[in-house]
Amino acid sequence: MTASSDRPIVFSGAQPTGQLTLGNYMGALRTWVRMQQDYDCIFCVVDLHALTVRQDPAQLRHHIFELTALYLACGIDPEQSTVFLQSHVAAHSELAWLLATFTQMGELERMTQFKDKAQQHQLNINAGLFTYPVLMAADILLYQTQRVPVGEDQKQHLELTRDVAVRFNGLYGPVFRVPEPLIGTDGVARVKDLQEPSKKMSKSAASELARVMLLDEPEAIVKKFKKAVTDTLGVIQYDEVNQPGVANLLNIWCAATGHSREEALNHFSHNQYGKLKMETAEAVNYLLQPIREKFLENINNQELLLKILTKGAAKARVRADQTLEKVWESIGLPIARR
Ligand code: TRP
Asked: In this model, does residue 3 exceed pLDDT 80?
């Protein structure tokens, strides 16, 4: 199907800042893959966003190919969806500039992610870190996006995107479609940190044991689950408050096997934690093995990956430019003759 298809338009992106975790997969990427059936999906590798934190060039390049290969390995289909690199479509930067003039300093100052990142990177609080949400708004609005699958941490940015779109449309007419969030669809699991199960699993956790990476070797995965923090109660039941570690393992087992919570409790109720840990590790390995294999096939073929991204960018550019021209026209900028 093509851009003219009447399926609702979905846009999402991830930053190429290092491998994805099991949490990223179960909470986001897997849902993206499933959405391809019913939506006209646009999946972006948002390299320009990654630049808001200082990056080593060789490593950034590696991470861009790695994330692209992971998208494909997880089942994102570049024929069915549009897969591309943000920096390849100039309209993102161009619209971001224009939208910055419709965004107030005060609005950006209120963004909690900016406040957190400014804390973490005190020696490089660059203007890009501050205007990051404007670039994200441009990403979304360029494609007349209807739905944006986002986690809790990006909800505030999406709200801002909506505010800016509504403001712009109020001044110039209906140029942008106002996007809706897509949160908590079926099958989304919120995977927690294996060492501190009250927190969400994050790439940046201090301990490697805290997170399972999509490309971890099977033995490493077994080790991490064996060492997962549980509690001293010694009964397998679902209690997020008093037994967050056990609840997390149960959730992961369910997400990996497709079983319901009730089935999980029936299956494990008279067992020890050791069995829950081992079976969860096995289920995760079973789930990730084909992804790892496909990734290894793709990652060494950078020519192919670049070809896919180039083709994706060409598809994206046509759509993005349509919106950008509408914006120019509406604010009084003459469009150059081709
Ligand atoms: N800011 C998002 C994140 O860090 C990534 C992102 C950039 C994005 N542009 C987007 C997500 C547009 C959804 C839509 O997770």
From this structure: no
**Alpha carbon of 262 to ligand 1 centroid (Å):** 34
> Which tokens sit at 314?
């060409």
pLDDT, tens only, 215-266: 999 999 999 999 999 999 999 999 999 999 999 999 999 999 999 999 999 9
For the CA of 140, the nearest atom of ligand 1: 12
- How many CB atoms are closer than 10 A to CB 53? 15
The CATH T-level fold of domain 9-188+301-331 is Rossmann fold (3.40.50)
* Helix extents (H) in the chain: 22-24, 30-35, 47-50, 57-74, 91-100, 105-109, 112-120, 127-141, 155-172, 218-226, 244-257, 261-268, 273-299, 302-331
User: What superfamily does domain 208-296 belong to in CATH?
Assistant: Tyrosyl-Transfer RNA Synthetase (1.10.240.10)
Centroid of ligand 1 to alpha carbon of 12 (angstroms): 6
Domain boundaries, the chain: 9-188+301-331, 208-296
- Tell if the pTM clears 0.85, that is, is over it: yes
Express as a percent the part of the chain with pLDDT over 70.
97
What's the CA-to-centroid distance between 223 and ligand 1, angstroms?
Answer: 32
224 catalytic residue (yes or no): no
Residue ID of nearest Cα to ligand 1 atom 3:
14
| Residue 326 annotated in active site | no
